[in-house]
Amino acid sequence: HQAGRLQPATVTRLHRLSTGDDTASGEIGADDQHIVRIVDWLLMTAITIPLVYDPLSRVGTYFVDLFEEMDRQARQGQTPVQPTPTEMAAAIQGPLLTVALVALAVGLLYESIFLLLKGATPGKLLLGIGVRLRERPGRLPLGAVLLRQVIWAIGNIPGLSFMGLVGLLDALWPLWDDKRQALHDKLAKTQVVRTR
User: Fold this and answer.
1) Residue pair 25/15 in contact by the 8 Å Cβ criterion
2) Which tens digits make up the pLDDT trace of 114-171?
3) 3-state secondary structure string across 63-96
4) What are the respective helix, strand and coil percentages of the chain, to the nearest 5?
5) What value does the mean pLDDT take over residues 17-26?
6) pTM for this structure?
């Protein structure tokens, strides 16, 4: 015990008193964050796949037809004619953009609905983790959920490399942030906390 310095337990008690939150003391470790992401990713994928079956099957059909035609040409002794990268991109970019936008929409809705109704996604609930406003406990207001999700979505917009940098910055932000908050939490004034 050093004179004049607050001990960690005292700091935790002061934090609990100042925020009215008796759950904020537990650190959320990297292992927990990875498990949350895997669980939520699996659930979002299960929701997304039926919605994108048609565009994915169009991409698959394009490649099957392409390879069958190239095989037919080769069997006839001809040099197989391959499409240019531009032709190939033109053939599949529409369906792949549809897949990316549906996956983005599912992610936004999944996170937003669960945060509004439960204060956590199923992955977070499984591990006893929730999301709340940084300054006060309780349910997240709609504005905070939407701001948090818009910032997340900006970093995940398909095909925009600059926006991908926002997503990377968002994911890396907790590494140097004193409260270990992602950029979307920082800007939305939310905090990921232990709930049990």
Assistant:
1) yes
2) 999 999 999 999 999 999 998 888 889 999 999 988 887 777 665 555 656 777 888 7
3) HHHHHHHHHHHHHCCCCCCCCCHHHHHHHHHHHH
4) 65, 5, 30
5) 42
6) 0.74
Give residue 160's pLDDT. Answer: 57
What pLDDT, on a 0 to 100 scale, did the predictor assign at position 18? Answer: 37
Contacts of 51 (CB under 8 A, 6+ apart): 102, 106
Segment 89-117 shows an average pLDDT of 93
Whether residue 195 contacts residue 188, with contact meaning beta carbons closer than 8 Å, is answered with no
Closest C-alpha among 154, 143, 153, 155 to residue 188: 143
CB burial of 20-38 (b: ≥16 within 10 Å; e: otherwise) equals: ebebbeeebeeebbebbee
Q: Mean pLDDT across the chain, nearest whole number?
A: 82
Both structure tokens of 109: 């809705």
Q: In the structure encoding, which two tokens stand for residue 54, read together?
A: 């048609």
**Is 36 in contact with 123 (CB distance < 8 Å)?**
yes
Q: What is the CA radius of gyration of the chain?
A: 23
d(CA 150, CA 36): 20
DSSP at 141: P
Q: What DSSP string runs through 30-42?
A: HHHHHHHHHHHHH
**How many Å apart are CA 53 and CA 75, to the nearest integer?**
32
